[in-house]
Automatic annotation (TrEMBL):
This is Regulator.
């Protein structure tokens, strides 16, 4: 019995990015026959590869300063392996802007509230 041979483009699309032919065609704004041609070995444009990587969260940006950051579901994964939610990013931004004593006290209260909300959200997921 003959095993099907996969091209590097097909392996990239199916295994690495987890995309179907239809999803790839839609994402890259290409015809299904074009994606099938890539699967048969025709050269895939680098911009489509990059778009597929961005879509699957394997890469956030092609810029050097984002090199080791990734997206996993609804979190950003830092180079150290920590996950950051959008709410944490917004909170950090808010904390960075205020530096006077009153703002620091407010920030401290906000941080305590955010931790309490995070605990509640974790408990709801269980």
């Amino acid at each position: 019995m003959k095993r099907p041979r996969y091209t590097k483009n097909q392996l990239f699309r199916e295994i690495e990015c987890g995309l179907s032919i239809e999803e790839t065609a839609d994402l890259c704004c290409k015809h299904i026959n074009t994606v099938k041609a890539w699967d048969r070995g025709r050269e895939m444009p680098e911009c489509c590869r990059r778009l597929m990587r961005l879509n699957t969260g394997r890469v956030i940006s092609h810029k050097k300063n984002w090199e080791d950051f990734k997206i996993s579901h609804d979190h950003i994964v830092t180079p150290t392996g920590e996950t950051i939610t959008p709410q944490q990013i917004l909170l950090a931004q808010a904390l960075m802007y205020g530096q006077d004593k009153e703002t620091l006290q407010t920030s401290s209260k906000l941080l305590r509230l955010a931790r309490a909300v995070a605990k509640i959200l974790v408990l709801e997921r269980r």
